[in-house]
Automatic annotation (TrEMBL):
InterPro entries from the UniProt entry: CenT-Element_Derived, Homeodomain-like_sf, HTH_CenpB_DNA-bd_dom
Localization (cell): Nucleus
Pfam hit, one: HTH_Tnp_Tc5
GO cellular component, one term: nucleus
Protein name (database record): HTH CENPB-type domain-containing protein
Amino acid sequence: MDRKKICKKSSAKKKMMSIELKREIIEKHEQGVRVVDLSRQHGRSTSMICSVLKRKESIKSVTPAKGLTIISKLRTTLHENMEKLLMVWVTEKQLQGDTLTQTIICEKARAIYGDLLKQTPQTSIDEASEESFKASRGWFENFKRGAVFTPLSDMVRQQVQI
């Protein structure tokens, strides 16, 4: 009998880079290290390294919220400020022993975003509007994953609605 090889298809999962790693890559490249060497050293593709280098100015200028290690998209400072304030609020609620749900956190995120939007002077019509931030399930999952403190992941109960 001939044995068939069972080929397990490995799904290529996107590897996220921390801000620190991106800054390290930029610094090494500025010191003269080649892109190919950086990609081998960090186990990333050359195209990913080039993407980081292409956005180096915005990566250098971003200041992530305390506790966040990974930022997948470079967003406006309005989003960053909202997430910083939301993390402070979540921490306070955790210290008080309150139970937080996804719905509660998303509602608070929308409220904070709306308040910040009202305080920020708008310079053009294309600027952010209250409708532009939806606090979707995807945003919440990214926010939860990006938070270093794991109690958020443990404490948040998702409400299943049938």
